[in-house]
Amino acid sequence: MTRNGEEPILMGDSILKRVLNSYPDLFNECSSDFTVSGQKISDLKVLVKRLREKVKDAFVVLLIGTNNVLKGTPLNDMKIQFRSLLQLFRRLNARVFVVELPPIAKFGLNSERNSVVKSFNAYLRSCCKNRVSSIALFDDFVVNGEIKQDLYCSVYVGTKRVDRIHPNSKGLQIIYDNIIGFILALKV
What we know:
By secondary structure, this protein is of the alpha/beta class. Helix content is 43%, strand content 12%. The protein has eight helices and six strands; from the N terminus they run βααααβααβαβββα. β5 and β6 form a beta hairpin.
């Protein structure tokens, strides 16, 4: 996958879990330990601490924060928690590639929650230095000032409950293509 054949570890919530389930052979096998539905930034930090040996010197692809937004975590708290998570990765000498959050289709593009997503993404970009890089994603899910609804699941799998939070197979393909494109660009 990378110059030295290293497979990235995916870390995040149900969005990356769905990417992993769609493309399991392309990522490190311990990715399933770190992609957890409902996971927030603070939950991931606890998990990384507990499984630190798997993360030491690793190549990490990280998409986390959607559940914080959904639960109404204040933006400043998200930033503090994310900064703390990055400090942990630095202590473990991990290379981190941060995937920016896609918009949440359940809410309008100009909703307060998507404003938090945009602000958090801007913060993620500002963190990119010293073994941390970001992968832009938000704009791939927007056209003419509207969220592309056809990139999202309309209902949760096996239920009639409205979703529009999780990307469908087309949306997952966009996330995957962005991750793989970024990784392949690293090859010399």
